[in-house]
Predict the 3D structure of the following.
Amino acid sequence: MTISLPPSPDPSSAPALGLATVTTEAEAKGAAPGMLPSGKPRSAFRRGLEVFLENKLAVTGVAIFVVMIIFCFGGPLVYHTDQVHTNLGAANLAPGSPGHPLGTDGNGYDVLGRLMSAGQISLEVGLAAAFLATVIGVLWGAIAGYFGGVLDAVMMRIVDALLSIPALFLALVVVAIVSPSKVVLILVIALTSWLTTSRLVRGEALSLRVREYVQAMKVMGGGGPRAVLRHIAPNAIGTIMVNATFQVADAIALVVALSYLGLGVPPPQQDWGGMLSDGVMYVYDGYWWLIFPAGLLIILVITAAIFIGEGLRDAVEVRLQRR
């Protein structure tokens, strides 16, 4: 008797089992809900940029800062005024006077043109002082945190001693001794503003110096300068960027305060703080245009820098990024 068996199935035509089946279904139906779509993962910079752009206040701050830079540095190219020679015959003209949209001050200077030239000095001093203070603070804090020991103790005790002195008082003493100028103001503000940065970077250096890549660099013969400049400082860039933005706001506020107290740049140059100081003398005469425009620009620029700093802090903070 012959028994006929059913033909064996073709392996190539049998459906794949296990993971292959799941993969085929996933490809046919698409990624399951809640699953990340296939593709190249986004870079950390792109994620940070998206988080920054989602912060409306940060974007507004950037827009304000860009407008202020264009107004101060591009405005004089279009709106020409004489900010050197006085014209007492046209002093204290009200806004809307012919040729003077925002009026004139006590020396006959056009207020709109004065805002532009004064803004150049305020922004230049603020940005340069913030940059210099950030560089000094990063190097000081990175060296202290990386080497540690006695060097760290001595360096940070110097920082603590200087932090116990109010920055404005220290700046007043230095500016009173040295004749104020744009360069002097930059140096004075920078040398009184790097202390907080150094403490923040030192904290980052204490945690970064024990990382594997730093230890590997030391095993391969790398020295301290290479560790500080190539590993510690670059990997603390998030903290440095955020702090540098706040440094700009603090530097502009400090230069305004010094100028308001009469220790700003010498005439005929002037910054926004000097305009406020001159306008206070006419506050009871109703000359509001000598105070309000400069005060408004100071508030806008400092607020914009703070908004940008808040946005950068959210962008570099991993916990606040969308994953």
